């Protein structure tokens, strides 16, 4: 088992530097960028933490140096996009914290946001927490959870979530089969619950997702490990893998279905 520093929260920010104005929808949205995300974290997070910047497929030392100056403590720079689950696993390998927190580069974290999540995660029965989540049946999301009070969910949303290092190690991290992207965070929540831990949604926190970045932010093919992936094709492929992997749940007579 990897060593860690008790009480430390490792904040992992994956990013692929890109022009943010890639689609019409970003033209009408606030352009909340990676630099903004780092500034807000540095200003608002009071708990003991480290920030790990994971630059997936970008070799510009000036960009990394700029982000380090804004508050990133460590950085990983890959020579090619290796996909979401592999990149997230690399971030965990660099982390020294007892708690691991993945934050999209277009998420705005206000005062008390991560502190509120950590307080709930410290419960011994809890393995993963986040500000948003829902139930999930086969290939589709179901009822949203935790809208007005802390509530269990089958899936914690991937734009920001926090988990215990021990739980991450127990379930083996993120399944690289989902490379380049889609379903990896859903699979992780299922693995956490499958290992006997609860996933909880914590509402009312000062956390805002601006939906500027992320694998689903454009309709362009995803360039990963030297080849282009059609978004719809990998979505269907990963959905099929997920359904097969967790097929025993769909056949469980005790499971509530929509």
Write up what this structure looks like:
The protein is of the alpha/beta class. It has one domain (7-250): Spore Coat Polysaccharide Biosynthesis Protein SpsA, Chain A. The chain has nine helices and 15 strands. Strands 3-2-1-4-11-6-12-9 form an eight-stranded mixed β-sheet, sandwiched between helices. A hairpin with a 2-residue loop joins strand 14 and strand 15. The relative contact order is 0.17. Residues 20-30 have low confidence and may be disordered. InterPro entries: Glyco_trans_2-like, Nucleotide-diphossugar_trans. Residues 34-127 form the Glycosyltransferase 2-like domain. It comes from Candidatus Lambdaproteobacteria bacterium RIFOXYD2_FULL_50_16. Pfam families: Glycos_transf_2 (PF00535).
End-to-end distance, in Å? 39 Å
Unreliable runs: 20-30
Please state the second-level CATH architecture: Alpha-Beta Complex
Rg, alpha carbons: 18 Å
Tertiary shape:
globular
Number of H- or I-type helical stretches: 9
Task: Write the H/E string, N to C.
Answer: EHHEHEHEEHEEEEEEHHEEEEHH
Domain Glycosyltransferase 2-like: 34-127
InterPro entries: Glyco_trans_2-like, Nucleotide-diphossugar_trans
Organism: Candidatus Lambdaproteobacteria bacterium RIFOXYD2_FULL_50_16
Protein name: Glycosyltransferase 2-like domain-containing protein
């Amino acid at each position: 088992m990897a060593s860690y520093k008790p009480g430390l929260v490792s904040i992992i920010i994956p990013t692929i530097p890109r022009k943010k104005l890639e689609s019409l929808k970003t033209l009408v949205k606030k352009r909340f960028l990676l630099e903004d995300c780092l500034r807000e974290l540095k200003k608002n997070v009071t708990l003991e933490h480290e920030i790990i910047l994971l630059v997936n497929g970008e070799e510009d030392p000036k960009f990394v140096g700029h982000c380090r100056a804004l508050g990133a403590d460590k950085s990983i720079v890959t020579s090619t996009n290796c996909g979401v689950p592999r990149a997230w696993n690399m971030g965990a390998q660099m982390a020294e914290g007892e708690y691991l927190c993945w934050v999209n580069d277009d998420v705005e974290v206000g005062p008390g946001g991560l502190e509120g999540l950590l307080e709930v995660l410290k419960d011994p029965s809890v393995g993963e927490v986040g500000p948003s989540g829902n139930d999930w049946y086969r290939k589709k999301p179901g009822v949203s959870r935790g809208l007005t009070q802390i509530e269990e969910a089958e899936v914690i949303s991937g734009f920001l979530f926090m988990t215990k290092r021990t739980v991450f190690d127990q379930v083996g991290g993120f399944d690289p089969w989902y490379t380049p992207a889609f379903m990896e965070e859903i699979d992780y929540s299922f693995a956490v619950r499958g290992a006997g831990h609860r996933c909880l949604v914590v509402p009312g926190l000062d956390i805002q997702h601006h939906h500027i970045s992320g694998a689903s932010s454009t309709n362009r093919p995803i360039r990963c490990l030297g080849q282009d992936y059609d978004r719809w094709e990998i979505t269907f492929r990963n959905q099929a893998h997920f359904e097969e992997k967790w097929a025993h749940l769909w056949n469980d007579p005790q499971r509530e279905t929509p």
